[in-house]
Specification:
The complex is a heterodimer of chains A (272) and B (334). Chain A is 81% helix and 0% strand. With 272 residues, chain A is mostly helical. Helix content of chain B is 31%, strand content 31%. Classes of the chains: A mainly alpha (272), B alpha+beta (334).
Chain lengths: 272, 334
């Protein structure tokens, strides 16, 4: 009996916690967004400024995610399988974007690429503006979600060991064939999860992009910046509506991953 | 020579895994690299496969210097202790892997794979995944996978080390039959002397990164070159300061020239053999191996006084050999 009691109380604590900090706040945003009615919701999200902001978020995400996927795999392979120097250093450096506040990341990028930055002036004089423009926003987004893929893939690669890869080599496979036929299929679930987290993080990025974008409505506002802007201007229904679009996109990404995982587990069960 | 290793040295940092090692493996033979764990035998196999590069020395396969060749270019089949099965591929696709890399035709690949699966008795399990196979089945799959590309040499790294005793014995017998049917030059790494003696026509004893002795099982057993080989390859006993095999001691009822008096302390009947612990008149203990028939003829019992003579002894230091025998008993770390 006490065991059952403790189990129930443990469950209640977990549930209450989730309700208080996750379900109720997010649920309220959804509620407020649709409170004025569907037509108002549609007007809010289909305004040119909102559309442009969502489009920018999409662009930043669609560039940052593949970049970080490729970098993440390469970094993980070097950290786990590499023989060269600096593997431990790289392993530690990958986490820097987790540790540093995104605002600081934004400031650092301004210092390097800004008009008065390290090589910003030469960039600007050659007609390529990074700060207060799309390239800087993509750079900031890429920076903040850099660790996810590598962090997911590194432990999986370690656990996998290199015997399968060596076996493939002795059977005649070159490095490229070994990677595509053996390594990649073995890490695909970790990689998928890393990509999902990267995507969700990229969609939600605020701080670093806020600093480098300059916050110009209709030009350099991503969806999160647009929401903050509308919120500050007491334009709450619009802020809620665009928030809902953002949240839905992120939830969709995470649920699709969960579904894929479940299908994988089921197929494994059916096989055995 | 199918494989020739000439003066190979390999260090890992300060650790000398191989020190000036030379080995010749005759064409079509089954050679065992035998020795205690950590002695360098697996490193030697990996150097032959190209999975490790030697610091010094030359590796030849079929006369060709392959020292600088990548593993892909060496035409070797390699079987790992823990199978290295491709977990995301079916048994059929595992075996077909090397053929697909070589871009063989679909029909040819299918035919070869089917034949090999029959050969390794996995015909009915072609569409399973490695997770659904037993250890012995996985290792047979790994063998079929290695054989599919018709390698010039087959390298087996403790292939039965992770399996239980019964499966090991079955696979050993099966490997011998396979080698008769398909006599590809094979090197097997093992720390199990029975496995080496049962399978191999040539045994290379490797210890502390050096070749201790090379020879047929009989040569090593009857004429060990070092006391380590004597003790590692078979049972040894200390008879009055001389190194003997326990079954080379003759036990008699009556004293004869050259015999020593001894007290029977213990008689253990283990199947067809009888192990008798004696205490010599000098006070030293010695164990003798008798057949059941010999023991019955003697009517040997505890506390009897008997007379012992050695038929043959090795002119080698005794203590080292006995220490080597004890090394055999140390279980291999998994």
């Amino acid at each position: 009996m006490p065991e059952r009691l403790s189990r129930i109380s443990l469950r209640s604590v977990a549930l209450f916690y989730l309700l208080a900090i996750l379900f109720i706040p997010v649920g309220l945003v959804f509620f407020r967004a649709f409170e004025p009615g569907l037509a108002a919701f549609w007007t809010a999200v289909s305004s040119p400024d909102a559309q442009h902001a969502l489009w920018l978020t999409f662009i930043c995400t669609i560039v940052a995610v593949p970049l970080n996927t490729i970098f993440g795999i390469a970094a993980a392979l070097y950290v786990v399988r590499g023989k060269g120097p600096g593997r431990k250093a790289l392993d530690a450096i990958i986490d820097i974007p987790f540790a540093i506040s995104p605002v600081v990341v934004g400031l650092a990028l301004v210092l390097v690429y800004g008009e008065n930055g390290w090589f910003g002036s030469s960039l600007v004089s050659s007609g390529f503006q990074v700060i207060f423009a799309l390239p800087g926003m993509i750079l900031a987004t890429t920076f903040v979600c850099l660790p996810f893929v590598a962090r997911e893939v590194i432990p999986t690669l370690r656990e996998l060991g290199d015997e399968q890869e060596q076996a493939a080599q002795t059977l005649g496979a070159n490095s490229w064939q070994t990677f595509w036929r053996i390594t990649l299929p073995s890490i695909k679930w970790a990689l998928g999860y890393g990509i999902v987290l990267t995507t969700a993080r990229a969609i939600g990025e605020f701080g670093a992009v806020a600093v480098v974008s300059g916050h110009i409505v209709g030009q350099t506002d991503t969806a999160t910046l647009y929401v903050a802007n509308q919120f500050e201007n007491f334009n709450l229904p619009v802020a809620y509506a665009v928030s809902v679009v953002l949240a839905t996109a992120a939830l969709f990404v995470i649920f699709s991953m969960t579904l894929l995982q479940r299908r994988q587990e089921r197929s494994i069960k059916e096989e055995s | 020579m199918a494989i020739a290793v000439e003066n190979v040295t390999k260090h890992f940092g300060d650790f000398a895994a191989l020190e000036d090692v030379s080995v010749d493996v005759p064409d079509g033979s089954l050679t065992a690299l035998l020795g205690p764990s950590g002695g360098g035998k697996s490193t030697l196999l990996r150097v032959i496969a190209g999975l490790e590069l030697p610091d010094k020395g030359i590796v030849r396969i079929a006369g060709e210097d392959v020292t600088a060749h990548a593993p892909q270019k060496r035409d070797v089949g390699f079987v790992f202790q823990h199978y290295a099965a491709f977990k995301h591929l079916t048994v059929r696709d595992n075996v077909a892997f090397g053929l697909k890399i070589r871009k063989r035709g679909k029909a040819e690949t299918r035919k070869t794979v089917d034949e090999l699966l029959e050969l390794v008795q996995l015909g009915g399990l072609a569409d399973r995944y490695p997770d659904q196979l037993s250890g012995g089945q996985r290792q047979r799959m790994a063998l079929a996978r290695a054989l599919a590309v018709q390698p010039r040499v087959l390298l087996l790294d403790e292939p039965f080390g992770a399996l239980d005793v019964k499966v090991r014995a079955d696979l050993r017998a099966w490997l011998l039959r396979l080698h008769d049917e398909w006599p590809v030059t094979t090197i097997i790494v093992t720390h199990d002397r029975e496995e080496a003696m049962e399978l191999a026509s040539q045994i290379v004893v490797v210890r502390n990164g050096r070749v201790e002795q090379t020879g047929t099982p009989d040569e090593l057993y009857d004429n060990p070159g070092t006391s380590f080989v004597a003790g590692f390859i078979g049972p040894v006993a200390n008879f009055d300061g001389r190194l003997v095999r326990p079954h080379d001691l003759t036990v008699l009822d009556e004293a004869e020239p050259g015999t020593r008096e001894a007290l029977v302390r213990r008689v253990a009947r283990v199947g067809f053999e009888v192990r008798v612990q004696l205490l010599l008149d000098s006070g030293d203990p010695v164990e003798v191996l008798l057949t059941r028939r010999e023991a019955d003829a003697l009517e040997i019992e505890e506390n009897d006084i008997v007379h012992v003579r050695s038929e043959r002894s090795f002119d080698l230091p005794v203590d080292e050999a006995i220490a080597a025998g004890e090394e055999v008993a140390v279980p291999e770390p998994a």
